[in-house]
């Protein structure tokens, strides 16, 4: 097709006609690029009790997560709930930006709000993009900050092939993941937050007088499936992460890049039926999440997850709603994450769901300065010297990283990461900031690092560029 179009251009005598044909050719080229990742399907099946990989197909290949992104949004939401920062009834205010997100969405107007529980239910069932953005803005102060928190959490969990740019999974070329990383996150959600994991098995819920049905067609179809999340954009194809248990065995499986929702679901069903009998009946229910990281023999069970849920900044969340918030344009909406409109699928049986109270309140007026003050930290600590103590490698990404600071306060280390990201956005465009704790002489310190460098040379090159901006740093292998 492209060769034919170029042939027409070469024979055309009209500059305007040639330009039109070239534009059409570029459209095909862009479509090829956008769909290339979707054309390569990826899958993995992990024994959730032992961490053993039972099946793998391009599991480390870079993929677009689509709405699987919301799994991390919910991880951080559950973490905030577990720490008492928010509760199920905390109002989640929708900014103009959140309200304007592309479908699928809950449809809350700017300044309106719903409870945290309603936002969670709308995400696990309807995959509501507006609810995900609103939660991200509440927890992070703004979505870009929340995206950095998401990526830092991913690194702390061992998800080394993932970078998040938004809270909902709407198209962004800088947001990517792998099937293996999504399996890691799926296991982490269940093992770290069993008290909230039941949300993922919800097949519908009441929003006012409206019953909203879910997208996960395997719930109720395949015995033992209890979640977790579907996802679809044109670039990603049809994605699905499933958790399934048959009593003594438990699997987490991932399928990414399906050509349709039906084929993806059938592939997942086949993987579950094939590999569930091969899963271990031994081991404790919390083995993968709480394994002793000192023994490297049980490789994946030790590497997938840290001993406990990895830390995030302890600042109290502030809700922001501003008339100046940006609004999604029509082009983004046209490629929105909407599995309902992607294809018509057979309806599922709807399990009874408890009624969720919806609260509508006026958005609080919070000045930008207040938001900055709420998340601003004390002055950054001085840059460290290269002589540092060994780190607990169970909670840090492998490969090469660059360290820019070390502090006794995690909040100060995070502040350095934020400041450095703003000072050198191009240098750190593909890197992800994270903090990692270590003990020295009985005192806990937090290293501020940027990971995601594929080689020593890449890390050194980035550090050299930072030093030209008068940012002290050094490269280190994790």
Structure overview:
The structure is a single chain. The protein has 478 residues and is α+β, with helices and mostly antiparallel strands. It has three domains: 2-37; 40-303, Beta-lactamase (3-Layer(aba) Sandwich); 377-477, Alpha-Beta Plaits, CATH 3.30.70. The protein is built from 16 helices and 14 strands. It has helices at 2-11, 15-39, 69-82, 96-99, 116-125, 129-140, 143-156, 179-192, 261-275, 287-290, 299-303, 330-334, 339-342, 368-375, 410-423, 456-468; strands spanning 42-47, 53-57, 91-93, 113-115, 204-207, 210-213, 225-233, 237-245, 250-258, 355-356, 400-407, 432-440, 443-453, 474-477. The strands form four sheets. Strands 2-1-9-8-7 form a five-stranded antiparallel sheet, with helices on both faces. A hairpin with a 5-residue loop joins strand 1 (42-47) and strand 2 (53-57). Helix 1 (2-11) packs antiparallel against helix 2 and helix 5 (116-125) crosses helix 6 (129-140). It is globular. The model is unreliable at 1-13, 27-39, 285-337 and 340-397 (pLDDT under 50).
């Amino acid at each position: 097709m492209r060769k034919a179009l170029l042939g027409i251009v070469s024979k055309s005598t009209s500059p305007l006609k040639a330009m039109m044909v070239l534009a059409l050719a570029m459209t095909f080229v862009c479509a090829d690029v956008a769909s290339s990742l979707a054309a390569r399907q990826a899958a993995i099946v992990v024994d959730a009790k032992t961490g053993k990989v039972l099946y793998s197909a391009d599991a480390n290949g870079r993929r677009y997560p689509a709405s699987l992104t919301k799994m991390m949004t919910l991880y951080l939401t559950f973490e905030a709930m577990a720490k008492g920062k928010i509760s199920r009834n905390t109002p989640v205010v929708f900014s103009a930006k959140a309200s304007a997100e592309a479908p699928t969405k809950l449809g809350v107007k700017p300044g309106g709000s719903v409870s945290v529980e309603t936002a969670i239910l709308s995400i696990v069932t309807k995959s509501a993009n507006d609810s995900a953005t609103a939660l991200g803005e509440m927890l992070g102060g703004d979505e870009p900050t929340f995206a950095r928190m998401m990526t830092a959490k991913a690194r702390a969990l061992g998800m080394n092939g993932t970078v998040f740019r938004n809270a909902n999974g709407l198209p962004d070329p800088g947001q990517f993941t792998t099937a293996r990383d999504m399996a890691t996150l799926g296991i982490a959600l269940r093992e770290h937050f069993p008290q909230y994991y039941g949300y993922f098995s919800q097949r519908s819920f009441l929003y006012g007088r409206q019953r909203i049905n879910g997208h996960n067609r395997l719930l109720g179809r395949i015995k033992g499936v209890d979640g977790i999340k579907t996802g679809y954009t044109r670039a990603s194809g049809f994605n699905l992460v499933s958790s399934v248990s048959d009593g003594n065995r438990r699997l987490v499986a991932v399928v990414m890049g399906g050509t349709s929702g039906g084929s993806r679901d059938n592939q997942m069903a086949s993987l579950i039926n094939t590999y569930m009998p091969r899963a271990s009946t031994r081991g404790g229910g919390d083995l993968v999440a709480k394994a002793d990281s000192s023994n490297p023999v049980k490789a994946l069970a030790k590497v997938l997850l840290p001993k406990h849920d990895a830390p995030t900044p302890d600042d109290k969340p502030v809700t922001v709603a501003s008339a100046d918030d940006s609004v999604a344009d029509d082009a983004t909406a046209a490629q929105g994450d909407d599995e309902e409109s992607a294809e018509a699928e057979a309806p599922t049986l709807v399990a009874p769901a408890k009624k969720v109270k919806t609260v509508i309140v006026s958005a609080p007026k919070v000045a930008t300065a207040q938001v900055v003050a709420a998340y601003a930290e004390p002055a950054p600590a001085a840059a460290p010297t290269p002589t540092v103590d060994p780190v607990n490698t169970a909670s840090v990404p492998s490969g090469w990283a660059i360290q820019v600071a070390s502090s006794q306060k995690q909040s100060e280390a995070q502040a350095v990461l934020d400041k450095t990201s703003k000072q050198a956005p191009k240098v750190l465009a593909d890197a992800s900031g994270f903090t990692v704790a270590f003990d020295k002489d009985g005192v806990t310190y937090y290293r501020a690092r940027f990971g995601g460098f594929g080689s020593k040379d890449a890390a050194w090159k980035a550090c050299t560029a930072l030093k030209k901006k008068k940012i002290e740093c050094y490269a280190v292998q994790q």
